[in-house]
Design brief:
Helix content is about 35%, strand content about 25%. The strands form 2 sheets. Strands 2, 3, 4, 7, 8, 9, 10, 11 and 12 form a 9-stranded mixed sheet that branches. The chain has a 3-stranded mixed sheet with strand order 1-5-6. Helix 1 packs across helix 2 and helix 7 packs across helix 9. The protein contains 10 helices and 12 strands. It is α/β, with parallel strands linked by helices and about 270 residues long.
Length: about 270
């Protein structure tokens, strides 16, 4: 992944959303993982995790990534999907890059999964949407410190219905070697009390699989979250809430907060 013809998407938010120095970044991520609650359940098939700056949402994201400890050597592919914040996107956008880079090194893009996604309606290549986007990038250091060796399919979601998102996820679903990570924060800029109430209702909707009750007011990644809920139901998975906090609980002002939740998706018990 270092050849002259390799197309690389460089880190866009290193030094802002997370440390730009490799040693400091590794220590920051490892410390967050060490302080996260342990997970005794089965290895997850999918996660929903937040994507703000590490000082705000890092501890909540770490709760999700802590669940991957037993799958460290099993997961080889990560479908990483989150909302577009900066560039308007119709449908879903993949990157043409061969790799994404963080201070911790190079993460190869999975060309086979990208081709599967591009074969579906509503999926295009859009490097402009990926270039500044933080919703995917902030998860890469956590994955780099959690998994042994993996490739990634980066998907930015704009104006897309849940069925379109679910169809793409189904096409790249894979087996135990493939993990789906949906990137989403919850409520935005309410006070602590109002945000906590709204986020509890959103968490209940996710756990119950009620995608119709989740809009962009409840989660900035509503489209990928709702798509995952459809795909999870089709594949016999259910969601469990692992962590639910706000920026006021970590490092922010309680009068104007952002909500964060972490959810794990595992196989539902049989009848």
């Amino acid at each position: 992944m270092t050849g002259a013809t390799t197309r690389v998407r460089p880190a866009a938010v290193a030094g802002r959303f997370y440390p730009g120095d490799a040693r400091t970044l590794a220590t920051t991520v490892d410390d967050a993982l060490a302080h996260a609650a342990p997970w005794s359940g089965p290895a997850p098939k999918a996660l929903v995790v937040p994507h703000a700056g590490y000082v705000y949402s890092g501890p909540i994201a770490a709760t999700g990534y802590r669940t991957l400890a037993a799958a460290r050597d099993t997961v080889r592919r990560v479908v990483l999907i989150g909302p577009a914040h900066y560039v308007g996107v119709d449908g879903l956008a993949v990157s043409s890059a061969d790799a994404f880079v963080t201070p911790l090194g190079v993460v190869p893009v999975d060309a086979e999964l990208r081709d599967r996604a591009l074969a579906l309606p509503g999926v295009t290549i859009d490097d402009h949407a990926h270039a500044p986007e933080h919703s995917l990038e902030v998860h890469l250091p956590f994955l780099q410190r959690t998994l042994t060796d993996f490739s990634v399919l980066p998907l930015v979601v704009g104006r897309a219905d849940p069925g379109t998102v679910a169809a793409v996820l189904d096409a790249v679903w894979g087996g135990p070697d493939t993990l789906v990570v949906v990137s989403s924060d919850l409520s935005h800029y309410l006070d602590q009390r109002a945000a906590s109430a709204r986020d509890r209702a959103t968490a209940a909707a996710i756990v119950d699989g009620r995608g119709d009750d989740i809009t962009s007011e409840e989660a900035c990644g509503a489209a990928p979250v709702r798509g995952l809920l459809l795909a999870a139901r089709a594949h016999g998975l259910h969601a469990e809430l692992l962590d639910l906090r706000t920026s006021a609980d970590t490092a922010g002002d309680p009068t104007r907060v952002v909500g964060y939740g972490t959810f794990v998706f595992v196989r539902s018990a049989g009848p």
